[in-house]
């Protein structure tokens, strides 16, 4: 159909629905329109259907998750090879009579509902009563943000992994696309590729569980190297400089495949009059349940709506045409799943009413679209508690995040007096400490009144924060506010610190990076949110170690309060995260709260005393200070920078009796958790191979049964649910975890002493264990130090040392130059 519009320009076709983009969503919409006999035109800018799937790597296995969701489309789709799926869709769209126009890129959409004009790149125009945008985000990838990112061996798409032979290839990003690319490049050993994949964190928040499992199996088989807490710092010819947890490292790299996500083509979409949920680059359009945008008559489906899964996209394509055809009774395909989930809640609300309640009442959900909320609820739980009922108790394991939809809770701040509480009201969250740190619950929380909460599993919460910037900001804001109130105390309320929180900025700091530099003017204060910092001063031209700041500390207030220059340099011991607080806002808080100013001045005086002590005696014991500084740096380099408890041995006192190892074995079923002789030594201090009980344990990063927990005294332990997968052993950077079979029970010490029964004290030999295993294959489990949790008297290794050479210390208690002053 051709004709002229009122301005005399040629209109090539007039249809009821114009569908832009032939990915799974657009193709499904066109298929439904064809089946219903709705006048339509599918506009595809390439010369083939479904460019989304077409650009998948050759031979890729396409998943059909989520399994519980019913497919609602006129086109078939099931898990299978990319080529097979594309073939089926080509065949079925032809048989259905789908009206498709290739090489037709839309550059502008004008008009109003019932009469839109779409202008194509070649100048042609199409008229439509309604427009469905199914253009996805694939064409707008996130670029690397580092020096050298524009070099020719950096690519953002992998078409055929079999093209590359005998190369060192680094994949950046551990979403599904990145993992699948890495697996494809490492699939054939004959290609001899050395494949490394970089994960900026320790979780796989954006990836499907099945893909994560395949990746870890490939790592275990030696085909792929996974680098956790690592990002690109600089791209060079044949090399890639990495920012790792412990500092920068350079690796050989012939090719970089960057799969760090993509963002909606915002400029074009906004030019069509469509508003987004927030100003963030990765935010999505505001949509109604019928997928209609803020521009009436323009609808958005698929990845552009925040739904990247193929089955979701195809269901939306079907649904949007049904809505446009007048089917107002149609419910989304996930309706039965959500209805069953919400059936446990009191009240007679339907799914839509519950979702409206959650979206309007809960702060962290206000920046995500209704469609994103539906997807999030599929991976979350909803719970009801009566007034007075505990949601969770202090020291319980748990890393889920709770959002209050109705009611409020009380946080018991004194474990010995449940009556001492602070409230958390409707719309807020709790449990964020367990989410961020992996620690056990820090307090008992009970319902102050009848309570309805949404419980987001760790994976669901991390995915929400990774894909919804507004939600991540809301979680960060709440966690920062609570950290400020906890640190500063002095009767502060959320209102008192609101200006500080508004101006707070979360910054990632690479290992060794300077946060504050001695001599600089001081304008801001910094909280150590994750990781740890080293404080040092230059004395005699050399940096001298002053102290160690673990997560939860703050620094920089001295210069802000008295207007002086920075008195010391603060740098990251390991890869860390800090919160920068504006100094002027902090001063205004101090003006209103004199008791806080008094507290801060007391801390300032203590630090000044240390500085004066160093300055006054530097001539007399510079060699001692220098030795202490080097020793402290050695300890930081060997893991104390992220430790909460570390075993040290004073070699001047150690007599090599091995009582520590024997006592450890006798306390743990005959398996010692430490190796006294292994490890590194500086001067007289030896760091044996024993668990550091890290602030953010690497071993916890991927434990399928969640068997690794943190105890009441900070100890990191592995419980009886361990399945022996070995992930913790692979993730530990200090080699303190081993996989071993639990030996048969040894006879008692008295039996050994008087009748010679058993192998004696300590860890039994492998020959004894094999002989007494009675022919059964003992399952292996992860073995590591648990600080003798539950054993009266504390760590056996320390108690068994006859000379006092073995000590267990926390870094902040040990690493301080003030100790020198005490010793003098």
Automatic annotation (TrEMBL):
This protein's source sits in the domain of life called Bacteria
Cyclic nucleotide-binding domain sequence ranges: 364-465, 488-607
Its keywords, alphabetically, are:
4Fe-4S, Electron transport, Iron, Iron-sulfur, Metal-binding, Transport
* GO MF term set: 4 iron, 4 sulfur cluster binding; metal ion binding; oxidoreductase activity
Please report the stretch or stretches of sequence annotated as the 4Fe-4S ferredoxin-type domain: 645-677, 714-742, 779-812
Q: Could you tell me which PROSITE patterns the record lists for this protein? A: 4FE4S_FER_1 (PS00198), 4FE4S_FER_2 (PS51379), CNMP_BINDING_2 (PS00889), CNMP_BINDING_3 (PS50042)
Name-wise, this protein is Oxidoreductase
Organism of origin: Novosphingobium malaysiense
